[in-house]
Amino acid sequence: MSDILEFADQFFNAVSNGDIDAVAGFYRDDVTVWHNFDNLDQSREDNLATLAGISGRYDAFGYEDIRHTALEDGFLRQHVIKATVRKKTVNVPAVLRVYVESGKIHRIEEYFDRGQLSAVFS
């Protein structure tokens, strides 16, 4: 189980560092990323584009209070998104259920209040 926690750390380090090529290496070609706020599945390409755009949308963006729980088919990730735009900062709790098979992520289910995150733009 410690291997999956190391995998989780490496994956989210790539996300945090904006290393989209590294993130892509963690994904299966058919990965889907679902978000509770729109109830839609994002494709691999759409999710990578979303992640690539983070640095252009926020003055600062990161994760705090990080917790991982190993599961038989992946891991659970809990964190607080800390995002800043024009000196306005929000802290948004989030939970991600990540499914891993044969060393690749094939599905992510992400839960957070997008309205809280969007508040930095108002």
TrEMBL record:
Residues 9-107 form the SnoaL-like domain. Pfam families: SnoaL_2. Gene3D superfamilies: 3.10.450.50. This is SnoaL-like domain-containing protein.
